[in-house]
Amino acid sequence: MSHVPAPPSRRSFLAAAAGSSLLVACGSSLTPGAESTDAASASPVSTAVPTGKITLVVADADDTTMTPGLLAAFREKYPNVTFKRQYTGWDDYLKSINTTMSADSAPDIAQFVSGMNNLVKGRLLLDVGGYGKAYGWSRRFPGLDQITFSADGRTAGTGALYGVPGGLSFEGVYCNKAKVRKLGLAVPPATLAELEALFAKAKAAGETALVAGNLDGGLNHPFNVLLSVHLKPEDREAWAFGRKGAKITGPEAVTAATTLKRWVDQGYVTPKVNGTSDNDATAAFARGEGVFRISGNWAAAAVDKGLGEDAGLFNMPPITKGGPLRTTGAGVYYCVSSKSKNAAAAAAFLDFCATRQASAVTAKAGFMAPDAGAMPQQSGLLGDVRTGWQGIVKDSGLQPFIQNASTPTMPDTLTTQLQLLAGGKAGVEKFLAALQADFDQFHS
Amino acid sequence: MATTTTPRRAARPVRKDTGPPPHSPSTTRRRRRAVALLYVLPALLPYTLFAVLPALHTAYLSLFDWDGVTLPSFIGLDNYRRVATDPQLRAAAWHAGALIVFFSVLPIAIGLVSAALVARRSGRRGTSLIRTLLFLPQVVPLVAVAVIWRWVYAENGTLNQALRAIGLGRLTDSWLGSFTWALPAVGLVGTWVVAGLCMVLFLSGTQRIDQEIYEAARMDGAGPVREFWSITVPLLRPEMAVALSITVIAALSSFDLIYITTGGGPGNSTVVPGILIYRLAFGGGAVGLASALAVVLTLVISVAVVLINHLARERS
């Protein structure tokens, strides 16, 4: 056991959600750019929730019931705090949040997405390290080191703390139990090879084995998970977090990409996958199309509603039987604006996310609670999700999406390249080389 | 006429108030011009504030290497050098060129024919209904149009259902996900949107044409086809210039339609300059490069429009 590679550690919990974002922040002067104002670090730190009437503006892209639920639960406890929530759709949030946070009227609390680490350099995010120490966050939240950034915002895991996770998410393999029974498939498979054998059986029976949609790059879910299974955790993390000199062109990555390509070529994946969107793929699976689908727990509610008792989920199997579980995941993180006048109240909300009350809200919304033990027992698909999450946590197997924090352009590049790969326009080597080229251009 | 008389009338009290020494004609003219400027001011001010200054600011930003948040560094014309050499940008330029066929050539052809047909039956029942139906796509927001067409082109969408219904099931494709068909598919949505506008433009043009010309032609034995080529088309040249300007601008600066339907995919097969500008500025953290591309795109469009108008004037 002593030779087992170092587990990806708690840092992998944090991976933040997709994308990156930057926007023209037209200041009043003609010279662009944020002025590097004086230290954004926490001023006087207090764990007492202020008593006067306080309004906190919250910006987020959380389309589940989690963020509104947490806000409501917090307000129940502290009626003097009112929230003004500014919800924006995911894509638009990614593109606009950096401008929003640069404005004088920046929200007090914002959902953190990768790309926002650029705000660290502009000193627009509050260093909440002082609050973290006072509240004891390091004991109560998993993986805070991933929302910890160096002063230039480019390296995670070192420097100052900028937020906490409200809820976490992970990728798993959904299955349609009715079809699994009908076709006599043995789930869960113990190895990746067994999973592929199940795909082959389903395909032979005339079913779509793996439901997917790549119009907007949804094949990144199986690809990310395949990378998690194949790559050494430290290599995968180095690339996902944009560490200089990291490579995604090695033999393990080639195996991962080749596997995905084979799934497409063998006809396991939804035919003409480039013409279906990721959401439509989830909807199709929930309607009873296909047998398996690799997606995150965020799709659990939709799948549960559609398939009911026939919905199931298991963890992505390792390469060797009994090996450590590995998968890809992200989370919803909250950070605080350095311009907030109510930092103490905002920090109190961040702290609230680790409470038992918060866990109930988080779990109900389909997220994994920071306090894993506090998640309520559930049956059916949501029970499967809970069990899956506990397995991942036990093996410290949650790893970041490769497109989130590697380079700002990676979400677009990965989508484009996956479409070329799935459409037969690019081979595995060319596909990986294109991803590496994007990486090298940014980190040169 | 109203526009020219109003300033003069309004200028009069100013002249009276300024007292006895009579002004020389040149002072009067200068003063009149100043007053005229005052009238333009309410329009000029927002235009300068919200169109001219941001445009100049964009041009200024194009000289910097800037991620949108931190302090920028001045790099002169480097961004323009990259615009000229980047192969992805060249592909985007080609796609925009192809879109001109779908946004300009096809709609103008369709518009001309439908205008001629509708004009011939003017006054008959149903004409205004046809006109309204053809113009309808113009009224629907482009984003909604794009969402609708995504359903039409989907694997189980209306188009494939229709093909299967008439026994052409083997022709079905996942149109927006096909490297061959994505660009024409998106282009045809553009055609659908713009054709109605062209028709209405041309229809108003045909009403300007003296009916006697048609009658004379008919007396000389001209059929509807001859009428179309010898009278309608040549006399609609001014409207065609307007239609061409509007649609070429729409083709070259297209963004929303493509952003919603394909996002530039599959691969890079529907990437256009607008998509690249957006990706670079809002996702890629290359605001300077995006600005440079925007400036180049603006210049190209301006030159195209000037050329079109120049040609139209020369011929007429």
TrEMBL record, chain A:
Q: Report whether Cell inner membrane shows up as a keyword of the record.
A: no
Q: Tell me the superkingdom of the source.
A: Bacteria
Listed Gene3D superfamilies: Periplasmic binding protein-like II
Q: Does the keyword Transport apply?
A: yes
Q: Which InterPro entries match?
A: Bact_solute-bd_prot1, SBP, TAT_signal
What's the protein called, per UniProt? Extracellular solute-binding protein
* Source lineage: Bacteria, Bacillati, Actinomycetota, Actinomycetes, Kitasatosporales
Give the record's family classification.
Answer: Belongs to the bacterial solute-binding protein 1 family.
UniProt keyword terms in alphabetical order: Transport
TrEMBL record, chain B:
- UniProt KW keywords: Cell membrane, Membrane, Transmembrane, Transmembrane helix, Transport
Region Disordered: what ranges?
Answer: 1-29
Instruction: Show the CDD domains listed in the entry.
Output: TM_PBP2
- Provide one Gene Ontology biological process annotation: transmembrane transport
Question: Which residues does the UniProt record annotate as the domain ABC transmembrane type-1?
Answer: 93-308
Q: Where are the transmembrane segments?
A: 36-56, 92-117, 129-152, 181-203, 240-260, 280-308
**PANTHER family per the record?**
ABC TRANSPORTER PERMEASE PROTEIN (PTHR30193), DIACETYLCHITOBIOSE UPTAKE SYSTEM PERMEASE PROTEIN NGCF (PTHR30193:SF41)
Its protein name is Sugar ABC transporter permease
Q: Which organism is it from?
A: Streptomyces coeruleorubidus
